[in-house]
Amino acid sequence: MVSIPASSGNRPFTFKDALQGFLIHDDLPFASILDSERIREVFRKHKSLFGGIYETTLVLWAFLGQVLRDGKEASCQSAVGRIIAFLIRAGEAPPTADTGDYCKARAKLSEFAIKQICIELATDAERQVDTKQLWKNRNVYLVDGLTFQMPDTPKNQAAYP
User: Fold this and answer.
1) Model pTM?
2) What angle (nearest 5°) sits at the alpha carbon of residue 74, between those of residues 105 and 110?
């Protein structure tokens, strides 16, 4: 399980704090909560499972790491570097540092499979929440701070009273 660091002092726990819990591990991000068998099962169902040195599981983990990082750390070159380091630690032959094959494999990731995995992980996480962590004893499904304003013209008032 991922160890999420506590916030320091009295400052509130932020998304960046949670993010660090995934990015500080030697393994690829989410490998501890998103196992390869689940990835294979979902991608097989969506007929988008692929193999080779850049197989589906490895590419998805690396892509998630790219999404969570910013700047140069989010580049394909950094993602391939993390894959190389991961494979060396695992005692496997790493690919070359060329990003072309990784980018081609990443393009094969099914959007629908990724969506299904996200829903499954969120559902699993929600089941594991301690009731003490709920907001006013309730699950929060959506928090939207969006404000939309329109000029208060007679035409807008007629359409949107």
Assistant:
1) 0.67
2) 30
